[in-house]
Amino acid sequence: MDSKHSDFYQEIRRRIAAWLNEKGEGFRHAQILLLAPDLFHLLCRLALDPRVPASQKARLATAIAYFFSPIDLVPEAFVGPLGYLDDVVLSAYVLNGLINAGHGELAKEHWAGDGDLLAWIQHVLLVAEEAIGPARWEKIRSKLGR
Q1: Residue 63 in contact with residue 91, Cβ under 8 Å?
Q2: What is the pTM of this model?
Q3: DSSP assignment, residue 145?
Q4: Cα torsion through 141, 119, 36, 13, rounded to 10
Q5: Which tens digit of pLDDT belongs to each residue from 18-58?
Q6: Are the CB atoms for 94 and 56 separated by under 8 Å?
Q7: 45-79 exposure pattern, b = at least 16 Cβ within 10 A, e = fewer
Q8: Where are the domains of the chain?
């Protein structure tokens, strides 16, 4: 990971940890929120891997750009680190597509986070669907699938 991505990774980790420390124990989505820097790192590593097809790299780049974008569903500028939840969901969605396209071993190879990557991705997507409802989730998925 280049210096710019590494610095951003560390900044996400620092901001989330400080915010969660202020919230105290029991924040409902703390574990999911803590995935943000690890998923960002994974997206970057996969985007730089020459074994990943260009079509998948385009999706990875979109998810990476979403982390930097000031315009998103839950903007970090207004809600602080809680705003990374939508970034985590988009990352999980993109990574799920990459894994389903047969690149699961590559994703596992680059995963630097704790726990099982596939289990985390499935958990994030399930929580997202439960939070917004199956009909809305399907509508979002159909738009993302384009």
Answers
A1: yes
A2: 0.82
A3: T
A4: 180
A5: 888 887 666 677 888 889 999 999 999 999 999 999 999 99
A6: no
A7: bbbebeebeeebbebbeebbebbeeeebeeebeee
A8: 3-144
The full length of the chain comes to 146
What is the distance between the alpha carbons of residues 113 and 117, in angstroms, rounded to a whole number? Answer: 8
* Residue 30, both tokens: 């703390």
Taking residue 136's Cβ as centre, other Cβ atoms within 10 Å add up to 12
Structure tokens at 83: 């705003």
d(Cα 139, Cα 23) in Å, to the nearest integer?
Answer: 32
User: What is the C-alpha to C-alpha distance for residues 85 and 65, in angstroms, rounded to an integer?
Assistant: 15
Structure token pair of residue 144: 């993302």
Residue 32, both tokens: 């999911």
Q: What is d(CA 73, CA 86) in angstroms, rounded to the nearest whole number?
A: 7
Token output for 145: 């699938």
**Nearest-angstrom CA–CA distance, 142 and 6:** 32
Using DSSP, state whether 50 is helix, strand or coil. coil
Instruction: Provide the 10 A C-beta neighbour count for residue 110.
Output: 18
d(CA 84, CA 20): 12
Q: Does 6 score more than 70 pLDDT?
A: no
Contact 13, 72 (CB under 8 A): no
